[in-house]
Amino acid sequence: MESAEKIVAQKLLEIEAVQLNIEKPFVWASGWLSPIYCDNRKILSVPEVRSFIRDTLCKLITHNYPSAEVIAGVATGAIAMGALVADKLGKPFIYVRPRRKDHGTGAQIEGSFEPESKVVVVEDLISTGHSALSASDCLKKSCANVLGMVAIFSYNFDIARRAFEKSNCELHTLTNYDTLIREAAENNYVNKEQLDTLKIWRLTPNTWGR
After folding, report:
1. Contact 12, 40 (CB under 8 A)
2. CB 39 within 8 A of CB 17
């Protein structure tokens, strides 16, 4: 039987949620140049894949955090999937903005929960981990008991691993960069030369292509 992380990687490639372009690298918001771009929002447009990802995230949460009481999505990428997961699990849903609104209530956390509620954070992907951990910190400051975090995909950067360790935040993901590029190579999405480039990029993403 194929592992869940292998199947998820295959589905992301099949629906072109992951795009590979060695010749014309993508520019991330951080300014990094990248030969790969993962857009998990495309999952929402494919019902059968959307349901599979939702159900697999639910299993991940149920297995690792059986006492979870509230599901929190990280804005904006994980709001929809987080809400789908919360609905499937029958849990309250909230989401966390990157910063407070400059109008209305000025809230950073949308929705409500009781103090010390056991919260699991849902994120769509993990790169440096900055936005995900900022959301987790915001919840903790608002008296939430953050059990941990689940995400669809992680680039497995060392900078993210160190950040999660420092924050003492547990992370579980459905799939990851190593599995993804292995599946991409085995299914002829990339050739050997492109695969080598993808491996090199992951080691020094902040300086690659400069």
Report:
1. yes
2. yes
Task: Give residue 164's domain range.
Answer: 4-203
The pLDDT tens digits for 51-101 are 999 999 999 999 999 999 999 999 999 999 999 999 999 999 999 998 887
Q: Which residues of the chain have pLDDT under 70?
A: 1, 102, 104
Q: With CA atoms as reference, report the closest residue to 100 among 110, 90, 115, 89.
A: 110
CATH code assigned at 52 = 3.40.50.2020
**Rounded percentage of the chain residues whose pLDDT exceeds 70:** 98
Q: Are 110 and 97 in contact (CB under 8 A)?
A: yes
Whether residue 18 lies inside any domain: the answer is: yes
- Is residue 208 a part of any domain in this protein? no
**Rounded distance, CA 107 to CA 163, Å?**
26
Q: Say if pTM beats, i.e. exceeds, 0.90.
A: yes
Of 97, 127, 99, residue with least CA distance to 111: 97
Residue 210 lies in a domain: no
Cα–Cα distance, 164 to 1 (Å, whole number): 31
| Number of domains the chain is built from | 1
- Amino acid type, 47: P
> Cα separation of 16 and 100, whole Å?
33
| 187 within some domain | yes
